[in-house]
């Protein structure tokens, strides 16, 4: 990133001011100097926040893979692009160079093309953290197909709803997945899901575990066999700036997941720029982000951001505690990792183990460490700082969302003085504002409010696939003229931001964004359940966990109720995935409701949190007596 590396605090403020005063000029300069284009844009940005219409780099022509691969070949063709670290430390890790990655992407793009995939077609991907996952995503991008990666922990029903929503023509999966000591049978989940899907013509299966799988004649093919046969030359598809690059689903406040659509040029510019600055990436660094590629963190900061910058990026297949709770620290030592980016939930769970597990490893290669996904509490921040960063590495607490495409608020390492639990300052081009519930902007410092963004940035998702109205309503109507994040934030005396958590019906469990509505919908399908309400409550390791208040059609005996709890969690597990299971289930005879029939979740949240002191005004409730009952029987 020539000319746009932020060097010190005065330089940050200078860049920031320029980016706000003249965003067009700022992003024009970044896009022009740091990327390869077939054709430049004729308008940097055009937007209408009321209609939720945003375009960046209009009429530019490009392909993101030219920037991730081709342009590196002559200068760093033999440099390692991907270090793949398998689940089992006994298995050899792989180093894949830029030229080898380029070759595999070309061959795979040919496989997809021969299977009838064309520009604009949707391809769903359900794979473990293996190199093929990166390869197929890049192959889609090279060909112009829209990838939609579905996290390989989602259930068959959750997969089916996503496949049907985007009308995918192809599914790419594997015979299985290693997770610690377990083997997950991904292919049979896909078989079950596809029973409910009409649009998928072909399933490509990558070999990983040698599990026996069922292959449906004419529909299912082994990737390996096709890959071997195809040519290593592929003509890159020329994409328009606003052509779709990928769809990634995130939960929302209604049952249906939201297919956030990211487009080619803006996403590329934003992830490229933010990766370079937030991680202070230097040419010989080894960067590692522990997220799964099935989430936006993996898309932007395992794959695209690092490769755009010609980085070496680690892909880890396994889990932090297998075979022992020092797997992360062992990998850092083994590959001499320089940037380590992980989630508070992982930090908290590893901090529970003896400090010897981490202290015995040589982590001196580390220069920058980072956190993402949920607010990091003070204790976890200090443990991370003391034991992993050894008080020498700045912690970048990065706030952003699936919808934002890239990091929005974060310290710049060696530039922004950090402050525990604070995401600190907005990156250049990002204009946070705090709004009160009456839609007034809250100015000044030492204030809290609803976090909105005033001006579009290149990485913002452009729509919800197939439902622009919902996009507009979810993000641009609560605070007209602004993008509403769904988070609350505090601005301290020097203007640093601290994210205080969701202000809507989304709960972040172990860094996974879970809408409570879809979980309620699935519980309510149980024949014994009349109604339910789910809220989050603080949890030592997961950050937040889920508490369900459930009304049964008929009240049963206690043994029956214990069974029901298991059945309810099984149902959630089948319909959404095990991550959405409830930690606590309380059967109640009613839920506190307003006269208009809305559940007063504020009260349920307080009960779940164990704060039974002051419920505020409950006089507007239709059934105020229920509060006492729920309170007494709380778990
Ligand atoms: C929500 C977005 C962005 C990648 C992973 C999550 C919460 C994210 C932080 C942070 C406090 C954070 C917010 C946000 N969040 N990063 N550093 N501090 N909260 O993406 O699944 O779209 O979830 O995660 O509540 O709105 P996501």
UniProtKB/TrEMBL annotation:
<comment type="similarity">
    <text>Belongs to the ATP-dependent AMP-binding enzyme family.</text>
</comment>
<dbReference type="InterPro" id="IPR025110">
    <property type="entry name" value="AMP-bd_C"/>
</dbReference>
<dbReference type="Pfam" id="PF16177">
    <property type="entry name" value="ACAS_N"/>
</dbReference>
<dbReference type="InterPro" id="IPR045851">
    <property type="entry name" value="AMP-bd_C_sf"/>
</dbReference>
<feature type="domain" description="Acetyl-coenzyme A synthetase N-terminal">
    <location>
        <begin position="12"/>
        <end position="68"/>
    </location>
</feature>
<dbReference type="InterPro" id="IPR032387">
    <property type="entry name" value="ACAS_N"/>
</dbReference>
<keyword id="KW-0067">ATP-binding</keyword>
<dbReference type="Pfam" id="PF00501">
    <property type="entry name" value="AMP-binding"/>
</dbReference>
<keyword id="KW-0436">Ligase</keyword>
<feature type="domain" description="AMP-binding enzyme C-terminal">
    <location>
        <begin position="519"/>
        <end position="598"/>
    </location>
</feature>
<keyword id="KW-0007">Acetylation</keyword>
<dbReference type="Pfam" id="PF13193">
    <property type="entry name" value="AMP-binding_C"/>
</dbReference>
<dbReference type="GO" id="GO:0003987">
    <property type="term" value="F:acetate-CoA ligase activity"/>
</dbReference>
<dbReference type="InterPro" id="IPR020845">
    <property type="entry name" value="AMP-binding_CS"/>
</dbReference>
<dbReference type="InterPro" id="IPR011904">
    <property type="entry name" value="Ac_CoA_lig"/>
</dbReference>
<dbReference type="InterPro" id="IPR042099">
    <property type="entry name" value="ANL_N_sf"/>
</dbReference>
<dbReference type="InterPro" id="IPR000873">
    <property type="entry name" value="AMP-dep_synth/lig_dom"/>
</dbReference>
<protein>
    <recommendedName>
        <fullName>Acetate--CoA ligase</fullName>
        <ecNumber>6.2.1.1</ecNumber>
    </recommendedName>
</protein>
<keyword id="KW-0547">Nucleotide-binding</keyword>
<feature type="domain" description="AMP-dependent synthetase/ligase">
    <location>
        <begin position="73"/>
        <end position="463"/>
    </location>
</feature>
């Amino acid at each position: 990133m020539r000319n746009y590396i932020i060097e010190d605090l005065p330089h940050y403020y200078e860049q920031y001011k320029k980016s706000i005063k003249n965003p067009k000029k700022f992003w024009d300069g970044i896009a022009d100097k740091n990327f390869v284009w077939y054709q430049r844009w004729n308008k940097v940005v055009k937007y209408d926040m009321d209609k939720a219409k945003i375009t960046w780099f209009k009429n530019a022509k490009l392909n993101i893979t030219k920037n991730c691969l081709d342009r590196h070949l002559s200068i760093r063709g033999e440099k390692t692009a991907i270090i793949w670290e398998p689940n089992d430390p006994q298995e050899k890790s792989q180093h894949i160079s830029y030229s080898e990655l380029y070759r595999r992407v070309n061959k795979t793009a040919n496989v997809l093309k021969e299977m009838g995939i064309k520009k604009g077609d949707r391809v769903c991907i359900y794979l473990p953290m293996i190199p093929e996952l990166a390869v197929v995503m890049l192959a889609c991008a090279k060909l112009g197909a829209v990838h939609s990666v579905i996290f390989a922990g989602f259930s068959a029903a959750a997969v089916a709803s996503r496949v049907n929503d985007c009308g995918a023509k192809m599914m790419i999966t594997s015979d299985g997945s290693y997770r610690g000591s377990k083997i997950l049978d991904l292919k049979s989940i896909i078989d079950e899901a596809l029973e409910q899907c009409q649009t998928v013509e072909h399933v490509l299966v990558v070999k990983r575990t040698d599990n026996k799988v069922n292959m449906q004649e004419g529909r299912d093919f082994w990737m390996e066999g096709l890959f071997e046969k195809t040519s290593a030359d592929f003509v890159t598809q020329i994409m328009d700036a606003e052509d779709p690059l990928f769809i990634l689903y995130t939960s929302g406040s209604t049952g249906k997941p939201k297919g956030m659509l990211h487009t080619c040029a803006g996403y590329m510019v934003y992830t490229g720029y933010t990766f370079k600055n937030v991680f202070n990436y230097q040419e010989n660094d080894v960067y590692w982000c522990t997220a799964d590629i099935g989430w936006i963190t993996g898309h932007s900061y395992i794959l695209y951001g690092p490769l755009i910058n010609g980085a070496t990026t680690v892909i880890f297949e396994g889990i932090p505690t297998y075979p022992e709770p020092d797997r992360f620290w062992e990998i850092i030592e083994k590959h001499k990792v320089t940037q380590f980016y992980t989630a508070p939930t992982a930090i908290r769970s590893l901090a529970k183990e003896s400090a010897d597990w981490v202290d015995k490893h040589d982590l001196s290669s580390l220069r920058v460490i980072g956190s993402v996904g949920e607010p990091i509490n003070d204790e976890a921040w200090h443990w991370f700082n003391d034991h992993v960063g050894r008080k020498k590495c700045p912690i970048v607490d990065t706030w952003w969302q699936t919808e934002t495409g890239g990091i929005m608020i974060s310290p710049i390492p060696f530039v922004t003085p950090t402050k525990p639990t604070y995401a600190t300052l907005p990156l250049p081009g990002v204009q946070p504002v705090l709004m009160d519930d009456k839609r007034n902007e809250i100015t000044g410092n030492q204030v809290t409010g609803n976090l909105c963004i005033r001006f579009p940035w290149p990485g913002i998702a452009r729509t919800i696939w197939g439902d622009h109205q919902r996009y507009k309503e979810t993000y641009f109507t609560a605070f007209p003229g602004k993008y509403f994040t769904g988070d609350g934030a505090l601005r301290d005396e020097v203007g640093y931001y601290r994210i205080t958590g969701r202000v809507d019906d989304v709960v972040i469990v172990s860094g996974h964004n879970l809408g409570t509505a879809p979980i309620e919908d699935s519980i309510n399908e149980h024949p014994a359940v009349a109604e339910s309400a789910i809220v989050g409550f603080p949890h030592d390791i997961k950050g937040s966990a889920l508490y369900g208040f459930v009304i049964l059609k008929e009240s049963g005996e206690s043994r029956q109720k214990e069974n029901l709890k298991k059945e309810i969690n099984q149902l959630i597990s089948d319909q959404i995935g095990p991550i959405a299971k409830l930690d606590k289930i309380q059967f109640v005879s009613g839920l506190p409701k307003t006269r208009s029939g809305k559940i007063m979740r504020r009260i349920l949240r307080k009960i779940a949190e164990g704060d039974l002191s002051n419920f505020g005004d409950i006089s507007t409730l239709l059934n105020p007596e229920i509060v006492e009952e729920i309170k007494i029987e709380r778990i």
